[in-house]
Amino acid sequence: MDYFRAIVKSEEISERVFDLTGIIIHKLPSNYNAYFIRRKCLRQLKLDLNREMEFINEVTIANQKVYQIWEHRRQVIEELNDFKGEIEFLHKIFDEDNKNYHGWSYRVWLCDRFKIYDAELIDVQYYLDEDIGNNSAWNYRYFLLSKMPLDFNAELEYIKNAIRLKQDNEAAWNYLRGWFKMFKFKNDQENPYKTYVQFNLKDFNLLEFLNEVGLTNRFALSLKIQYLLQDGNYKDAIEICENLQNLDLIRIKYWQYMKNQIIGLIQ
Amino acid sequence: MKQLNRTQNEQNLVHSAITQIRKQYQNEQTEEVPKEIMENKYFTEYEQLNELELLTNKHIKYCTKKLLNIGYSIFYLDVGQPWCIYWPLNALSILQDDVSKYENQIIQYLEKCKIGGFTGGPNQFEHLAPTYSSLLSLFILSTPAALGLIDRQALEKFFWSVQDPTEKGSYLMHVNGEADIRAVYIVVIMVVILKLDPKLLDGCAEYIASCQTYEGGIGGVRYSEAHGGYTFCGYAALVCMKKADYIDQEKLMNWLVNRQMENEGGFNGRTNKVVDACYSFWQGAIFKLLIQSGYVDEQLMNVFELKNYIHMCQNASGGIFDKPSKSPDAYHTCYGLSGYSLADSNFQNPIYNIPNKCIEFVQNFFQ
Known about the structure:
The N and C termini of chain A lie far apart (69 Å). Chain A is an all-alpha fold. The model of chain A has no long low-confidence stretch (mean pLDDT 95). Chain A is built from 15 helices and no strands. By secondary structure, chain B is mostly helical. Chain B has 18 helices and no strands. Chain B has helices at 8-28, 35-38, 41-51, 56-67, 83-94, 103-111, 128-141, 144-148, 152-161, 181-193, 204-210, 228-240, 249-257, 279-282, 284-292, 303-312, 330-344, 356-365. In chain B, helix 1 (8-28) packs across helix 3 and helix 10 packs parallel to helix 12 (228-240). The longest helix of chain B is centred in the first third of the chain and has 21 residues, at 8-28. The mean pLDDT of chain B is 90. The interface between A and B is large, with 64 and 66 residues.
């Protein structure tokens, strides 16, 4: 370590220093100083980037949640301008932790960088089939579909079936809800810089489906409130809030807040 | 503290016993506990739960030991040494321990990590994370000597050097490093309190808003999944700039309240993930930020359940862990206690996560 600190000070760029950063990173993969120097060496000495990818794969497999190694990967792939093997590598990562945040964030970058949306939509299906509650995979699906031409009615059927499979799956409910504009109380506004796509809830009839799922599912009830609000049926919306105050005790104050907001609309 | 080693199934039963009791109270408006519940074997355990309390003195002892560890055998945190000051120091200050006795030692140490921004340790490069933890530690000390260590001009220069060249309003954690919402948060709150060049804030609110996801929380970068830590960073930065309404706050709140977990009472960081005591702060503080921004006027989380969860995450000899069965560490102790304090008191500032009285001192110092 002390030797490395001396190198940091001297700003030396050489193969010797390059090798040393490799040793340091193996010992402490979050050592950002070492990556900074390593990338300088890579660029200035024009070292083999494919060999560097082997090094990165090795370090990442042993340390899957380190910011620095993922950023290093991103920069090297950017420079290589070739994503061969990357999807397979991510598959290995998600095999161990299918919600690895770094892995999914990197995948968003990779997909956007190489414009592989269509292929990715097929690939992400694997993760949803494996675990329908995998919110990282749902989030990725949303990203993909907001970048592609979309048959939203087909997508709605897909979501409904997913919910039927596991009715208390918050990930699927959030995904469903995410496609719609929600009712705005007087002091709220849409996010003007949002990157997500949104439709009007009233253009799609989901009420039958919500009733089918049941009257004790808090996600279904919460979405039903949105329909009632948009119809101006405040009385029934308040009733559901009261119902939820009994059903969903941990959020008792939130449902009281919703109820008060709706009462405010009547007055 | 009573040991409660329960399986998930038992946990559910305890919760349903608690649920029944509450329902009864609500319906009959009575304080008397019904007989059938009194006889439920889990009710006795619920009573025990109610007796749990914060092990203040044990935590003070634990944090004191951690704080004195500065610079020794902390290999894992070799590139984040100022965290070893901030986490225990902030915890001690929340526990109302007198932190002034550490002033000289901390200043001497941080001096070795200072360039303009701060470094992960002596002879390293500047990095935003240790800059954040170093500055907050100096703010907590709140003395002219501590604040005198801050070189605002050099700090401003460092902030300019980590502007993201590819994205307006975004910052890198260090030169040539990764960009995410943490970096924006750190730059924004430090520019505001230290009254640095407001041009550094250009585009930040717009960039943060573009990272709000369809779920309502905020992701680390655009299109990434909504996550407690990044949502805190993004929203705290917006509230700090008085631009909270750049995002859809109703959506944010809907996501946020659903992060509190029915069975455990603590928060998870993302949809369908498991509870972790550190989110008592990252998620919990957002409730306070929603009040500060004027969006709501009261605490909407379930404070009782959260506190119970933190009680259960205490190590008998001090320190807080992620969840029962794990070992305590300074990180979870700091954020567990921060969440605990923020839930129902106004001691801590929800943007900076240091005491409000220190914020006042710093603001006046840099008039």
